[in-house]
Design brief:
Blueprint lengths: L3 H28 L6 H23 L6 H24 L1
Amino acid sequence: MEYIWLIWGYIVLVNIYGFSVMGWDKYKAKRGGRRVPERRFFLTGLIFGAPGIYLAMRFFRHKTKHKAFVYGIPVLIILNISVLVYFLQKF
């Protein structure tokens, strides 16, 4: 049980990272700079950063017309929650 704070801390940090990277990509998209690969968003979502990416999609209005993001990120959120609930029940 003492590791629960580490788990929550990790989840908070990876979601802040996902939110920030999505914002950075939006910034670069507007200014024609080098973009963040879409693979990075999905990998971040896979390692429990999907909620942060989804919030950033809505906040920055970025990637909201890409079906892979519109459907894929919510699926990753469900996967994140499922895995988290499974592991929290084990502890």
